[in-house]
Each structure stands twice: as structure tokens, then as C-alpha cells.
Amino acid sequence: MRDPFSVEGKVVVVTGGGTGIGGEIAREFARRGARVLIASRSAEHLQGVARGIRSDGGVIESLTCDVRDAAQVEAMIAAAYERFGGLDVLVNNHGASFFQPAEEISPNGFATIVAINLTGTFLCSKAAARRWIAAERGGRIINMSSEAGVYGSPGMAHYGAAKAGIQNLTRTLAMEWAHHGILVNCIAPGPIDTPEAGARTWPTPEIRRAIASSTALRRLGRVEEIAWPCLFLASEASSFVTGQTLSVDGGPTSSLFVQ
Fold it and tell me: Domain 11-247 is classified in which CATH homologous superfamily?
């Protein structure tokens, strides 16, 4: 009997797959026998992850993609079919942000963060779903939101709004595409210990300790603790789960952090 938690042989696309959480998601899928395509705006970010996975015997390809550009997104999804013969799972992990008081965020700054986080998630999901619908086969989409999208995030109004939009988009797409066998779910990370988040969110030991103590578990999360729920949502073990946002935040938190 096949292990319902297995992802072996699946083809997985991970956006934002060259750093932090995205890199670990790619590694965890590859370790378990999935074939992985990682994408990022920066080719330099992708090289280290791809090299490490190959050295461990994993199967991985990489390409650059700006998720705000519909043509580049279509090319990314097409690449999964060209290189691996199909696509089973899309992980929309890309994201961007910057700190600024709401009254100082420019229209362009707000639009840019919404475009990368929210519009990019829509474009990637649409490109994958259109192929699955045309082929009359299902697929899995895993979106990455944030606890900032649940509680708000002072100093990052644009980011919090975009991440909240991802949760609503997840529910809507799940309802629209359920009859096509496409399951759409979302993960909302809490404070996860990555180099990128550390430099931006907890630049001093005091802030780091305050952020850690704001969780019920009194610690920061590890990148693999976001990757593992992705494995579950990509597997048959979650075959009756769609339209959901899973908070992976160490328990009730304050809005002192974003991830």
C-alpha cells in the first residue's frame, strides 16, 4: 500500500526557492524523491540551493522568473512540463517587503509589494490551474501567507494587506477549482529564523529574544517547520483539505514580527 504521506515522484515548482524557507522547502521535497524546479528573480540565489540538492542526489532544475510578469510565469510552468513531463504541486513561496510607516508608503511602493506577493500568487496559480484543467487532472497549490496577514503588521501595511489577500484568494480558488480536483491551501508562518528575516526583523539580540518570547513555545521557528507542512499539503494525506490557512506560528503571537 502506498504511503499517503509520500511525495516521491511528484513534480514540484517552488517560487522564491533560492533562499530561506523556499530553499528548505525545495530540499525537503527533493530528499523525499520529488523532482523540483525552483525559481527566483535572482539566478545567484538559485545556484547554491540547486548545487546542494544535486550533491545530495536530488533532482532539481532552476530558472529565473519575475512572478509579476505573466509571460515569465507561463514560461516557468511550461518549463516544469518540458523538463519533468508534468506538474503536481505549485508552492507559491515568493515574497518581498520593506519597513515604512503607512503614511510614508508611496503608491508605487504599495503597488510593488502587492504585485509581488498577491498578484504573483494569482498569476502562478492561474498558469498551473489552466494546464491542469485542460488536461482534466488535479493538482495542489500551496500559498505562503504570514501571520502579518492575520493580525496586521505595523510598519508594513502593504505587506500585511497583500498577505491577507493571499488567504482570501486561497479560499476563493479552492471553491472555484475544487470540481477540477485542484486543492488550494495556504500556510501562514510566524517568526521563522532565516538570515533574511533576522537582518530585517530582529537586528539586535534584545529584539530577537522579545520576538521569541512572544510565541507560546518561546522560540523562533525553523525553516524545516514550514517545509514539513508543505509536504503534508502536497501528499494524499491531505486529500480532503482545501481552502484552508494553516498557522505555523508557535502559538498565539503578538504583531511585533513579520515573516
Answer: NAD(P)-binding Rossmann-like Domain (3.40.50.720)
Q: Is 151 a catalytic residue?
A: no
Closest CA relative to residue 255, chosen from 115, 159, 185: 159
Distance CA 60, CA 14 (A): 11
pTM over 0.85: yes
- Judge whether 208 and 5 are in contact, CB under 8 Å: no
Q: All 3 cell numbers of residue 15?
A: 517560487
Whole-number Å distance between alpha carbons of 203 and 5? 38
- The answer to whether residues 59 and 65 touch, using CB atoms and an 8 Å cutoff, is no
Alpha-carbon span 88 to 19, nearest angstrom = 22
Q: What is the pLDDT of residues 94-141, one digit of tens each?
A: 999 999 999 999 999 999 999 999 999 999 999 999 999 999 999 999
Domain chopping of the chain, boundaries: 11-247
Pairwise CA distance, residues 100 & 109, whole Å = 10
Measuring CA to CA, how many Å separate 60 from each of 74, 75, 98, 128, 227? 19, 17, 31, 19, 16
Long-range interactions of 236-243: CB distance < 8 A, separation 24+: 236/2, 236/4, 236/5, 236/6, 237/4, 237/5, 238/183, 238/185, 239/4, 239/183, 241/183, 241/185, 242/174, 242/178, 242/183, 242/184, 242/185, 243/170, 243/171, 243/174, 243/175, 243/184, 243/185
Sign of the dihedral defined by the CA atoms of residues 114, 120, 121, 127, in that order: positive
Q: Pick the catalytic residue from 159, 177, 202, 257.
A: 159
